[in-house]
Amino acid sequence: MAAFDDFIIAIEEGIQQRDLQKLTFSNYRGSIPELENVYVKLVEIKRELMLSFVYRYKTKDITKNFALSDYLAEFLRLTEFKGFRSLNLNRGKEILFLQRNKKGDWHERKEQGLIQNQVSLQHDHHKERKLNDLSKKYLQSLNLTDASGKVYKNAQDKWKQINHYIELLSTSLKELPAERKVQVVDMGSGKGYLTFALYDYLRYTLNRDVQVTGVEYRKDLVEFCNQVAQEASFDDLHFVEGSIVDYQAEEKMDVLIALHACDTATDDAIFKGIQDEAALIVVAPCCHKQVRRELEKSKLSNDLDFMTQYGIFLERHAEMLTDSIRALILNYYGYDTKVMQFISDQHTPKNVMIVAQKKTIKPDAQDRVLKKLDSLKQYFGLEYQHLERLCGLEKVTR
Ligand SMILES: C[S@@+](CC[C@H](N)C(=O)[O-])C[C@H]1O[C@@H](n2cnc3c(N)ncnc32)[C@H](O)[C@@H]1O
């Protein structure tokens, strides 16, 4: 048993020295159906160092976190005679292999590793794979990958968009509270590509306790997405049928998402986020018809007629004006806002994403926002903007 005991000592050292990069169990000979591997890494949850065990089955991953006082029992269970026969412990500077032969004896082998760093539990210094398993069932059900995890040719753009989306949000998502279940609502979730990816990233890459709800008024899409979620065993991902404006969240929202919801539906969604004081509000606006109509009315009566007489410039004005006003209103409620390119403009001109993070409300900043809103509306001959109206700021600025 010397090799086996040495291996456990090396795990303990890896925990103490915080250089346990990954412990992998493979070559399973047990009776749990479809279990293929177990991956273990160090994580910090509610300021407590723990070991996160990811059980990889043929079609799903299940994660369980163990306290340092409890993990050994699970380790011994997984390495019973009819269990896993190959283990490898990556401690950066060295990799330790443990193999069991047919007689049941364990043998150990060491290799020099490549990485010298200690494990950082806060920040990943290496490029993190945002969605770390391309063979997941939901990707196949959404027609993004084939059974071997290869992304279909015609799904390459969508796949890039999904990854870019997670990339853009990953820093903000990591700042969400870790000590409780995080509530995420995705309004106008459509076929659910981005909703599923967000759930996958939060639940299985960041190991967060999370409830994700998609809101969508197309019944067929809601039924389809709920079925895919069920088949993938994504137990805390649900889709509900209904309109954004009527949606009543059961729990206070931490994250409000609305991607490509039409026209003022984006305002309805932002308003819900503001009302719930969501920590993060993310929208990718679609069309901007309400402000466009307003600009249309005033286009010949102000000095901007030299531009707004052209349909395409009128459109672009409507977009920039609407989204700048939305960002200003979010500032009014204490949000720091960033506006960034979401999708390459090769694919669509509607490619802006507003990411707003809740900070504190500052009364002097609120005064500045109201004055700015007022002067903007006068300059562009705008009577109102829908979010402004929902928030009751219209009366204040007039
Ligand atoms: C263009 S798709 C975008 C889907 C997804 N968010 C994405 O970006 O891939 C917009 C979806 O929002 C839904 N939708 C638009 N307005 C809505 C509203 N007011 N309430 C509920 N769903 C809405 C539409 O039915 C559609 O499925």
UniProtKB/TrEMBL annotation:
Pfam families: Methyltransf_32. Keywords: Methyltransferase, Transferase. The keyword Hydrolase does not apply. GO terms for biological process: methylation. Residues 157-293 form the Methyltransferase domain. The keyword Repeat does not apply. One of its GO terms (molecular function) is methyltransferase activity. This is SAM-dependent methyltransferase.
